[in-house]
Amino acid sequence: MNQREFQALGASELDPMAVVLYVRVFRSRVSAEHPDVTTTRYELERAMEFQPGSEGYLRRVHRVTWKRVMELERALILAGLLELLHIDGDRRMYRCLLISDRGHE
Amino acid sequence: MNQQEMNALKQAELDPMAGMLYVRGFRYYMNYATGEVSLSLSRLAQELEYHPPLRSSRKVERPSTKRVRTLIQNLVDSGLIALKKSGDAMKNEAAVYVCVMATTDKKRREKAPLKQVRPNPQGHELDTGQGHVDGHSLNRVDKGVQAEQGHIGEHRENSRQGHISERSEIYKREIARDPNFEQPCGRDLTLTQPLMAIAFRRYGQNQHLIENEFESFRLHKSHRTTQRSLLEWQDEWKRWIARSNIMNPTSTQRGNHHAQRQHPAAAILDVCERYASGQPGTEHDDTDD
To answer: Which superkingdom (chain A) (predicted)?
Structure first.
């Protein structure tokens, strides 16, 4: 991840959960040569799940709604981190705009 | 951020907020040389703040220090960070953490023990005294403390290096062409013929206007102490003139001419007065057009 991405993700106007969505779904799959990523609604929802490991019988999976995922996606687009290329049914294709092969990993 | 960190952040057991704390807090402020980061709990809470956009129904969110402690523990459990030194409230010292999975300069050097030594703009090779060093370390030697902290991207250093070498090449060529090559600062500039020729295209033959403009150019705050070659000063003077808001003398005259144009009623009154006095208009007025 380069410095420009860190700065964009560090903006206090960006929803905190959007940072997680960016790292978990988009950034981990792309590289400077291939900045495009195709994902599905299931993957997006699944990526935001949280299953606490140390709460004993209270352990339950925290999920987010599709509406919330779309809010986070919009926040990332507005922050200039993502571009929605096209939607094909359930599949959505994005481009990570700030990816570069220079800078610190 | 490397793939190992990404995979760790994708774990379902990791609180999403903890992931964000890692990205915004620990990883952003990490010292690239050592992998260490020292931030107070309040500072970390500040990094997690969320300010919703205008007209949003959401409120400003700021986690408590207790919540931040829980998130830090979550990160430690997942193996992303490790506590190196506990903080001391009495001494006003924050705890020191190490980003275990992050790629630091030390790890990078161990991974790729090195091959290339790049010449610097002066032409001789840099000697770091270490024998084998990688390209990143060379940049670090060039940039000193800033790169030591690791907050400057490699791309910026590379582009700067490229710019410097390009400029030094220009100077070398200039020196080869002209043995009396000099780099005057703006204060020492004089209005020579080439500079005058550039100004003529814009201002015409108005010597006074050109001299005034040149005076403000050479004493401008970003010019008076800057050293450049004469060719570079010529380019800067071209840009200055292009940006200049001063209208050229011909357009100013035209502007005045229009400003002095009579009101139609006054012109009619003037013609009537001339007819009344028995001297009908001998001269053609512009306002009749």
So the answer is: Bacteria
